[in-house]
């Protein structure tokens, strides 16, 4: 199913801020800098840059329906954020409402408004023929219409062309009309009409108005009035987009057809924050759809349809139905290694039929907040599993630490320190490799009780309860010139399709709380090691907006494969200048992940962050929340293709009642290759 939006998302701006490409300038650049003598590497000769020798022609736009990377940002077609609101990148959804013939039974299935005194709405010959002549009445579909991932809605109107033309006391003042409405409320308001986030109204005399909150955004009158009963078609397509401020919104395209004439209009943005979380919109929020009218001669309403679309929307998260946050109690983890809090989760499902779920996270018996100072806090890793996602409790648990010292932090209790310590172990990552086996990655202190961490990898059974035997794959001194990183954290693995090779994403911690994200290719043939000349920085604070001005860290990658390319989506945490954490997303488009030895180039989503602690999907409206980690995995259920399952580690401060840590479940119905 393809939709009609034809909107320019970024107004010609490039995702890569590269104002002058110098000697590699493509044909659309004006050429070499005049201050460089007009030759490659000519030097500035202490002369200020004089600009290009001829005007720039501007960066090209990505052609979303044409194979290739036209804007040369490393992303192609629907994997390019330029295409987030392109119709070619929207897949078909499912019908939500489909009324092909109106009758008494269909009307009775609707909410008849105002509900205080439900009106009689008449039908005949499969059409709604009459609304109340003395007041506005409406038939509303009882479940809200999901909109945040795109929707298509259509209505057949049969207006009455007044022989004297349109003649009212003023625009919008006619007493008779029929109307399609998207409403944020499920009843008639005090003004006698539904609140309209978006509506299309048809008057006798063939005046059509596109409206929002009673304000006319656009109007149209066909040139010629046809005979009574002539069909007027309305098609409305809604999909995610970015506004001029790079804020995720919804935009709608409206097409009206009548007697061989056609009128099109694209609306202003609908804010995603204004959508409703109501029954029927469990996956993504939406609005109520209704048919509204007044009068006996306003016109008739026929076939009415509404269905979902599947359009990319990286900013749309929703808790699962009856979301069940996981504290150490639900995970059945001992206080000996989790009393101070849990953080940095990982989640994976094992098997495609009746999947088995595994959760791991790191925790400490000392307060995690102490790490904001100079106090060393030790960590250990816990593990729990269940036959079902979003369980109230996870029945199979490591109880004690799955790996690491127990208790992991003994600075405040010296007598509890182990005689042969492993050291702090944290930031687990678990990758299912099939046949009941997995690859474990985590950060561990290189020297016990000393803060610098290195990265370790182990292979074992997903359900094993014995200790791991890890291999050290990377130390801080092994990165770059040896002084690049003070500590290494947050390892995450991406399969290449070759069982002997994986890409390792990780955090490079630097001075003053700054951090970057790097990637290196691991070779599993024989022993596990980093391949030479593959380690590189892939994301830095300067690459993202202010939400990551201090640090980017905690990569959580997923790979999706098509016949001719691999797309890596990487979620990450950004710390702003106040060290407050939010979550962003970036994408890399790789031609062949199994053979490339060059670190993927990540392009951040222009509307980052996609998830903040204050977002309603995290359910922190009456409390203060902080993000302490994030995990994501694909849904194993083929019937839910494109659905992502997520856990956000939250620190929740309850006014007057202390604080607690939990893992909060979220879902995201987004498939960029749909």
Can you walk me through this structure?
There is one protein chain. With 674 residues, the chain is mainly β. Among the domains are: 1-89, no CATH class; 91-310, Jelly Rolls (Sandwich), CATH 2.60.120.200. Helix content is 1%, strand content 40%. It has two helices and 37 strands. The chain has helices at residues 104-109, 335-338; strands at 91-99, 111-113, 122-124, 127-130, 137-140, 145-146, 151-159, 177-183, 198-202, 208-212, 215-220, 232-242, 248-258, 261-266, 270-271, 286-294, 299-310, 341-350, 356-364, 380-386, 396-397, 425-434, 437-445, 453-461, 471-474, 487-495, 501-509, 515-523, 529-530, 536-539, 551-562, 565-575, 581-590, 603-604, 624-634, 643-654, 658-669. Strands 2, 5, 6, 8, 9, 10, 11 and 16 form an eight-stranded antiparallel β-sheet that branches. A hairpin with a 2-residue loop joins strand 31 (551-562) and strand 32 (565-575). The termini are close together. The relative contact order is 0.10.
């Amino acid at each position: 199913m393809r939709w009609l939006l034809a909107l320019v998302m970024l107004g010609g701006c490039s995702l890569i801020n590269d104002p002058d490409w110098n000697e590699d300038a493509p044909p659309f650049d004006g050429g070499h800098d005049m201050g460089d003598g007009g030759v490659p590497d000519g030097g500035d000769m202490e002369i200020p840059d004089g600009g290009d020798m001829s005007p720039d022609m501007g960066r090209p736009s990505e052609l979303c329906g044409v194979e290739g990377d036209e804007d040369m940002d490393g992303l192609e077609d629907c994997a390019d954020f330029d295409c987030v609101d392109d119709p070619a990148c929207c897949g078909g959804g499912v019908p939500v409402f489909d009324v092909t013939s109106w009758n008494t039974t269909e009307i009775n299935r609707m909410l008849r408004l105002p509900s205080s005194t439900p009106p009689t709405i008449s039908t005949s010959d499969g059409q709604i023929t009459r609304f109340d002549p003395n007041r506005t009445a409406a038939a509303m579909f009882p479940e809200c219409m999901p909109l945040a991932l795109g929707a298509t809605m259509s209505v057949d109107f049969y207006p009455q062309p007044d022989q004297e033309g349109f003649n009212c006391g003023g625009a919008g003042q006619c007493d008779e009309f029929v109307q399609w409405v998207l409403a944020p409320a499920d009843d008639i308001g005090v003004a006698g009409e539904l609140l309209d986030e978006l509506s299309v109204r048809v008057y006798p005399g063939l005046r059509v108005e596109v409206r929002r909150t009673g304000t006319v955004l656009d109007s149209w009158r066909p040139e010629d009035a046809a005979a009574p009963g002539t069909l007027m078609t309305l098609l409305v397509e809604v999909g995610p987009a970015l506004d001029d401020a790079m804020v995720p919104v919804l935009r709608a395209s409206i097409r009206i057809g009548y007697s061989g004439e056609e009128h099109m209009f694209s609306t202003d943005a609908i804010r995603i924050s204004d959508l409703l979380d109501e029954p029927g919109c469990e996956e993504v929020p939406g609005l109520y759809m209704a048919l509204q009218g007044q009068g006996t001669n306003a016109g008739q309403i026929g076939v009415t349809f509404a269905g979902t679309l599947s359009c990319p929307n990286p900013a749309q998260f929703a808790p699962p139905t009856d979301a069940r946050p996981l504290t150490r109690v639900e995970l059945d983890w001992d206080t000996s290694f989790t009393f101070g809090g849990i953080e940095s989760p990982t989640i994976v499902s094992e098997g495609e039929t009746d999947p088995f779920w595994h959760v791991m996270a790191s925790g400490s018996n000392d307060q995690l907040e102490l790490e904001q100072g100079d106090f060393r806090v030790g960590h250990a890793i816990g593990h729990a599993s269940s036959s079902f996602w979003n369980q109230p409790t996870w029945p199979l648990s490591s109880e004690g630490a799955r790996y690491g010292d127990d208790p992991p932090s003994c600075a405040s209790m010296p007598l509890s320190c182990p005689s042969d310590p492993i050291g702090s172990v944290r930031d687990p990552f678990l990758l299912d490799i099939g046949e009941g086996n997995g690859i474990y990655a985590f950060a561990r202190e290189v020297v016990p009780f000393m803060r610098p961490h290195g990265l370790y990898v182990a292979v074992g059974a997903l359900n094993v309860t014995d200790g791991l035997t890890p291999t050290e794959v990377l130390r801080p001194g092994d990165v770059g010139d040896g002084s690049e990183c003070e500590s290494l954290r947050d390892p995450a693995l991406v399969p290449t399709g070759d069982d002997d090779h994986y890409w390792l994403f990780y955090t490079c911690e630097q001075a003053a709380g700054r951090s970057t994200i790097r990637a290196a290719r691991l070779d599993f043939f024989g022993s596990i090691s980093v391949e030479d000349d593959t380690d590189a920085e892939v994301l830095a604070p300067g690459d993202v907006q202010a939400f990551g001005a201090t640090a980017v860290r905690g990569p959580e990658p997923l790979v999706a494969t098509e016949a001719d390319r691999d797309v890596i989506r990487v979620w990450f945490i950004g710390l702003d200048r106040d060290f407050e954490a939010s979550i962003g997303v970036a994408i890399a488009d790789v031609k062949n992940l199994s053979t490339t030895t060059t670190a993927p180039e990540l392009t951040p989503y222009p509307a980052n962050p996609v998830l903040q602690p204050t977002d309603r999907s995290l359910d922190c409206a009456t409390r203060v929340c902080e993000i302490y980690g994030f995990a994501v995995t694909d849904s194993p259920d083929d019937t839910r293709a494109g659905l992502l399952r997520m856990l956000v580690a939250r620190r929740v401060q309850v006014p007057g009642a202390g604080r607690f840590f939990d893992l909060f479940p979220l879902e995201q119905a987004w498939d960029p290759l749909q």
